[in-house]
Amino acid sequence: VPCPVPAGCGAGVVEVERSVTAVLGQDVVLPCRYRAQEQEQVVQVTWLKRGPGGRSAKVAVLDRQHGEHVQEPYAGRVLRK
């Protein structure tokens, strides 16, 4: 799952692990941190999962105004810290 990138700005820095190892059926943490520039406010974050052929599927959307929405295949499986 790629780390979110703020739409239309890209002014801050996205920090991710180069590689994460997971075991099928076990929980995994996908660390991602966004360092905003001074005066910048992040209002929405979207997590996407890359599939075969580079196609992306939406996993979750975190929005300051509208809250958190996790897509059906991932409902109950996503926890944001």
Automatic annotation (TrEMBL):
<dbReference type="GO" id="GO:0007157">
    <property type="term" value="P:heterophilic cell-cell adhesion via plasma membrane cell adhesion molecules"/>
</dbReference>
<keyword id="KW-0732">Signal</keyword>
<keyword id="KW-0677">Repeat</keyword>
<dbReference type="InterPro" id="IPR051427">
    <property type="entry name" value="Nectin/Nectin-like"/>
</dbReference>
<dbReference type="InterPro" id="IPR036179">
    <property type="entry name" value="Ig-like_dom_sf"/>
</dbReference>
<dbReference type="InterPro" id="IPR013106">
    <property type="entry name" value="Ig_V-set"/>
</dbReference>
<protein>
    <submittedName>
        <fullName>NECT4 protein</fullName>
    </submittedName>
</protein>
<keyword id="KW-1015">Disulfide bond</keyword>
<keyword id="KW-0472">Membrane</keyword>
<feature type="domain" description="Immunoglobulin V-set">
    <location>
        <begin position="16"/>
        <end position="67"/>
    </location>
</feature>
<dbReference type="InterPro" id="IPR013783">
    <property type="entry name" value="Ig-like_fold"/>
</dbReference>
<dbReference type="Pfam" id="PF07686">
    <property type="entry name" value="V-set"/>
</dbReference>
<dbReference type="GO" id="GO:0005912">
    <property type="term" value="C:adherens junction"/>
</dbReference>
<dbReference type="GO" id="GO:0007156">
    <property type="term" value="P:homophilic cell adhesion via plasma membrane adhesion molecules"/>
</dbReference>
<dbReference type="GO" id="GO:0016020">
    <property type="term" value="C:membrane"/>
</dbReference>
<keyword id="KW-0325">Glycoprotein</keyword>
